[in-house]
Predict the structure.
Amino acid sequence: MKAKSIIVVASLITVLITVIWTLTVKKEAQKVDVMRGNIRALKDEVNYYRTSDSLSAASVERLTLALSEFKEYYDDLAVEAAKLKLNVKRLETVNRTATKTVVEFKTVYRDTIINVIEKAGEEEEMFKTDTIRCANYEDKFITMNFCEIKGIPRGTIEVRDTLIHFVHRVPKKFLFFKWGTKAVKMEVVSLNPYTKISHAEFIQLKK
């Protein structure tokens, strides 16, 4: 009976050691995967490309950081989060995308003649005509209105844009077999054809 108890205890200890070893190996493997992913994210440049309908898009790999690393290397983003009254400890992911918009267009000036009243003296008023040149341009994504008054152009420019972000898993691959996760990437696309994505970052905070 005593021998059986010893065997049972030994078996339980063996199982416990195996479980702990398995979990340790798995945890270390996850750390290695995160490290490799961070090396790729820092080493590889952002992949800029055009979609099938010529919209600007970018692909960037996830950078996984501890909270202390995020505060040290991305303190500007931590400050912006604080401005929004967000607790940095509760952040899951942070995405930053930079864009620039360049519009080439042609339009024609419209001349508008106006009457201007100017004082010639203390009591005398003099009527004077002046010409204001105005132009405008508008489509689905941009509206421009401006006038040239006394040689100085003044007006407004309104740009409408939508950025869509997709986070997806890239599986490991060998020949025709796919399994697990090699990397996590973010694809971002601008729906404004005048906009070009110039920079993208995808940061995930460790928990």
In short: Residues 46-102+160-205 form one domain.
